[in-house]
Request: fold
Amino acid sequence: MVSFVPGLRTILSTILSESAAASNIGLMGALANLGGFLGPYVMGTLYTRTHSYFVRVDLLTICLLLAALLVLTFKPSTQTQRIS
Reply:
């Protein structure tokens, strides 16, 4: 369920400075908690309105593809500044 975390943290550390990466890891945790709260509600609402599981699978597929496209747009910086 959380296999994305090491990859996401690696992407964040290559793109951002250390302090910005640390704050974004906190933001990632907050958004994950929000998704854990809203996810079941949204999926239940979709099932109640459509009486079909296919709409839910389609929504998850679209979100996965959008996330993949978002990751592909990131370019690591050529300059790395590390604070000792």
